[in-house]
């Protein structure tokens, strides 16, 4: 199996190409052309135990609505995995900066107020709506400069993580 | 002894009290709001009853409903925990009227200590040292200026009914005083419905150190040692330890004696805590008394060997304290981390939601009091405390070592927590040297990066971790082909059943 893995440990995303093949009860992993024998076990959901050349690693996985994070020790990596032969992956990869961007609720809470109107211009980082949770107010900001195409959030309404609040284009 | 106790609380403290009851052979009654039906304290109780919708004002603060459940279930006593109704004298009174024992002090003691000015007045009579200032609310700005002149600037204006930093103003010069007094008064009126404001000398970089006391209903009062609580944020304690790095046996003895004097002056019974401000010369001043069990009580338990909840229940049942002051010894060191559902990358904003993965630490020198489990949805309606992780050892260094190791083992996914903050504090040189004051944490967070999450260094080690992350991503995908990792987040997650046909077809296609 061949994977393209985009890994971001905070210093910017890097693309790695991995080939994984099962040989008997072991795995052979070719990482950027280098061959690594890997012993891998999933002892429980979201935990992976790796043995590489006698060294033991425990990797933890966190999946949110939109992102995937892997923890190696106390370092967190944002990870995206693509099957290079899949057309869908390629489509998904295009046009991230251009085009509409969805703004979703990052946590369950209540909409306190809307900070902009539909069709108004916003800067990247400008507040769009205020969500309250655990008695704290949290400004949800625009991920890009553009026009607020749609506002779906309603003041006073309860929201769940992943709920669509607004679209900026 | 009581046969059945109702616990008028939720979260980790409700579980803590349930456990004590279970140990003592006492049946337990839990109460819960609509969002807490699946909460740990409900699952672990002998009986549980719904008391209303999520907002605390409609559930955990409803005296009438809680007493109705007590009556219906035949509970003989109520433990209020901390927060909610724990320091509400009206609730204690209502319990007495309903013939249910309130596990805590009398309404009289609570009322006396509830107002900061009346507490100061009472303590002045008892000869307790407190920060110079007035014991009554200020009648005018002129009076304020006069008092400030006599005790010296800077001064602090404080709401008599206050708490949580509301109605508090630091005043450096005479000309600021008048407007500061006005704004403190209106804030106090808005927050507490009481505009009474008094004045105190401001202490620069104080420590916050408190003393645990225990009093039975037969006139015996003892102190159980201090807790250092200077590590705070937004007036909220984050980390506590016992003993304090700066308190020696002589100072402990003097603080303990003052604390006992305070408790006796208020005819106090059951568990209570006397809070002190400590200046840089190690002078201590009475601040206020908390008339309940504290969140941070475990560090006292671990350094005295006593179980405070057992003792609270025994005292409420009319028993005498089973030991004297001379029997109390302080041994070893304990440090508590309050694990909050907060996002370190987003200015420690609350982060409620579903806990998708929970790996909890254990092993030598570790105690954890938790109110959550994997799969639990942390509601947005209450305070964000998930659990308390306490490290203890023969000395401070040992306790730190146990804690550092345990925090490495601790992993929570689905919601954000402040676990990384503790790793940062434990590594900090000032913390290790015990150089603490109430401004410590704000300084630590201002310096260095704001984010609590480590950024992979561009070192060999960082590159290796990155490689491991990439290999792990591929191996997760290879070992569980139906997981979201292999499908760009489009499949249904762990609950979806992998299709062998699909899997086989895919691996064939990739050959």
Describe the protein's architecture and organization.
The complex is a heterodimer of chains A (169) and B (511). Chain A has 169 residues and is mainly beta. Chain A folds into 2 domains: 2-93, 2-Layer Sandwich (Glycoprotein, Type 4 Pilin), CATH 3.30.700.30; 101-168, OB fold (Dihydrolipoamide Acetyltransferase, E2P). In chain A, 4% of the residues lie in helices and 59% in strands. Chain A has 1 helix and 16 strands. Chain A has one helix at 87-93; strands spanning 2-8, 14-23, 26-31, 34-44, 47-52, 55-63, 68-72, 75-82, 101-104, 109-114, 121-122, 127-133, 136-141, 146-151, 158-159, 164-168. In chain A, strands 1-2-3-4-5-6-7-8 form an 8-stranded antiparallel β-barrel. In chain A, strands 9-16-14-11 form a 4-stranded antiparallel β-sheet, with no helix packed on it. A 4-stranded antiparallel β-sheet of chain A has the order 13-12-10-15, with no helix packed on it. The two termini of chain A are 37 Å apart. The relative contact order of chain A is 0.14. Chain B is α+β, with helices and mostly antiparallel strands and 511 residues long. Chain B has 4 domains: 4-103, 3-Layer(aba) Sandwich (Rossmann fold), CATH 3.40.50.20; 132-201, ATP-grasp fold, A domain (Dna Ligase, domain 1, 2-Layer Sandwich), CATH 3.30.1490; 207-446, D-amino Acid Aminotransferase, Chain A, domain 1; 461-509, no CATH class. Helix content of chain B is 36%, strand content 23%. In chain B, the strands form 6 sheets. In chain B, strands 13-12-9-10-11-14-21-19 form an 8-stranded antiparallel β-sheet, sandwiched between helices. In chain B, strands 3-2-1-4-5 form a 5-stranded parallel β-sheet. In chain B, helix 4 (89-97) runs antiparallel to helix 5 (107-114) and helix 12 packs antiparallel against helix 13 (419-427). Chain B starts with a strand and ends with a helix. The model of chain B is unreliable at 483-497 (pLDDT under 50). The interface between A and B is large, with 63 and 54 residues.
